[in-house]
Prior knowledge:
Strands 1-2-3 form a 3-stranded antiparallel beta sheet, covered by helices on one side. It is globular. The protein has helices spanning 41-57, 68-79, 85-103, 113-125, 130-149, 176-186, 192-201, 205-210, 254-274, 296-309, 319-330, 335-342, 347-353, 358-374; strands spanning 6-12, 15-24, 30-38, 216-217, 222-225, 228-232, 235-239, 248-251. The longest helix is centred in the last third of the chain and has 21 residues, at 254-274. It has 3 domains: 1-60, no CATH class; 65-167, DNA polymerase, domain 1; 176-317, Orthogonal Bundle (hpI Integrase, Chain A), CATH 1.10.443. The termini are far apart. It is built from 14 helices and 8 strands. By secondary structure, the protein is of the alpha+beta class.
Amino acid sequence: xxxxxxxxRRRGPGHWExxxxxxxxxxxxxxxxxxxxxxxxxxxxxxxxxxxxxxxTGTLVSxxxxxxxxxxxxxxxxxxATVAPRTFERYEEVVRLHVVPELGMHRLSELRVAHIVRAxxxxxxxxxxxxxxxxxxxxxxxxxxxxxxWQLLSVNPCAAVRAPHVERREMTALSLEQARSLLDQxxxxxxxxMLATAIHTGLRLGELRGLRWVDVxxxxxxxxxxQTLQRVDGELRxxxxxxxxxxxxxxxxxxxVALLRHHRRRQVEAHLAAGDAWEDRWGIVFTDALGRPVSxxxxxWALWRALQAAGLPRVRLHDxxxxxxTLMLGQGVHPKIVSEMLGHSTVAVTLxxxxxxxxxxxxxxxxxxxxxxDGPNRSS
Length: 380
């Protein structure tokens, strides 16, 4: 669908841009608006038709009168289809609880650096954690950056606001001996294979819960991370991976292949025993006795009980991912390979997160290079 005042342009797979004219400014220059639309071409056509209808009926708010609250609502609507459900849930919560109360009354075109600075001060005075204030800052920045991209603002006022300083959270990981003790402790338990998979592969919790048997190739010893399973608004939802690089193939150690084969046999037996009560809708790997996805709290409690029984320090489930990365890097696995296994967006993310491992890697690299240059026949 194309109108004389509007058009649709493809910006990438599943992403479109609609353009339409609002009229002319006092100097006779055309006023155009650009908006992003996620979905199909038909979705973009419908969005353009809605905007043109609003323009014709006088219900379209001009950029000069658009408030931050109204823009935030439209921004959330546009963002919903481009991020994971849990991410959108966080965006919506931050906008509703923090952004709109402090900034929503301002007109978007009149939003200034001082407004955002005062809002940050209010969030700090409300005793919000520094990390929460930083999260709000990043969402406001992203929202206003999109306003610039859509030509509703000429500059992003948040770009001139200093981001709140947050002390870097210290990385927690199990040592090699501790990881071995944990694997021994969970062996044969209800959630033992899931915890072992976390240590061996570094998969995130949502990726573990969303793992399906169709994504596991036990013959070649590989699994594919294609989706996540998360609880959003009280309902379990299958969602996309965190980033496009999170969709990845991970090679399994022979021990993990054997564990998953045994787990598959046990699951088939549980299915036969449950009969019609079996509830598995997705063919996922880690379920309870009735085929329901393992709850995140159940596996967390299983981890904490195992750690206590083994006399190990209490760590989070996500720290098993850090453990996998730290152990691989410590054994000299190339950071690029570790980055690919973990599904990081770039190898720089891996090196930044696990910089505590690099001194040991550099010591070993220096020793190896020294031995190589010294050579077997050189005299001392």
